[in-house]
Amino acid sequence: MTDYGTTAADPANRPVQVNAWNGWDPLRHVVVGRADNAVVQAPEPAVRRDFPDDGFPLGTYGPMPAEMTAEANEQLDDFAAMLSRRGIRVDRPTPVDFNQQVGTPDWTQDTMSGCMPPRDLLLTVGNEILEATMSYRSRWYEYLCYRPLLQELFRSDPRMRWEAAPKPRLTDATYKPGFWDTYNSLPTDVQLARVRDYDLVLTEEEPLFDAADIARFGKDLFVQLSFVTNRSGHQWLKRHFPDHRVHAVTSTNTHPLHIDATWVPLRPGLVLHCGERLADAELMEFFRLNDWEIVEAVQPASWDHPPKLSYCSPWLAGNMLNLDQNTLCIEEKEVALADQLAGYGFEIVPVPFRAVGPFGGGLHCATFDIERDGTLEDYFPRRHGRY
């Protein structure tokens, strides 16, 4: 495992242990992604990349510019080193050549994607690490980047459960034909109605989910239905975690993709939501009934700083990493958000991270927690409606 140096709380002296029930208990062991070899994905049914102003109009693909990759890696490395100085054990994925054709007997895909956002693929619940399905053909083999680490964790922690959701076939039957040809031209109110009805790009041919569409609140797991997570994926997760309450939630975002910039747990009793994507009224009432305060995030600074080749929303500002219940890592330019949350008593750790966004997300996306202190707790003793 990667050693970023020793501190007074040297993580090398701690036994390896897989344990995490939520996103706010004290962080002890984490994975930080890499930007190496990342590409703009080749066209596929699940997703379209169209960056005409940045040299990659619809239908073109290939390696991310070398200078962008170098800057993103510098910020990722600095972030990993900062975490290590705080006594947190840090590991990294093993990149492969993502600019190659891959396939199965059902399909071929001209490129892969990258391994910057480990949060998309991997989920820790208690002593289990679960590999998500992934619904992009370009990400089908991404698990290979994490197999060396997972094998080492399995050897080191005799309690670890290593699970993988069924690898999907991703045939044409998995996707609604012609979806992208019409959806982006629809009026906003029609798009939102389709999101509420979960009438999006994926069919229910097979269970599909990204790990980043799952928010962990102890005994309760909230699964967002999105462009990459379908109802069948939610049902699979309910059956896989029978001792948890696994809730399906929908977004008020026209392009829902991952819950971790929309509905962000900060600590017991406090959750942040995206100011543009209010949760549905029933979910908000459920939280309030259980004495949770819901904070509406201020407008992000990233509205004024759109990076090149980025498919991320400006609300990536809320994609932050908790080091514990009182400490938040926030992108350094998001000063207004930092000030807002400092008002709730948080210590804010500003992290330069803007260059990482085009490679798949922010501070939460770029990490995957292996160990946090803490045990399974029930933060929602009162039921409400479908929750």
From TrEMBL:
Keywords: Transferase. Residues 94-113 are annotated as: Disordered. It comes from the Bacteria. Signal peptide: none annotated. It comes from Streptomyces lunalinharesii. Residues 97-112 have a biased composition (Polar residues). Belongs to the amidinotransferase family. This is Glycine amidinotransferase.
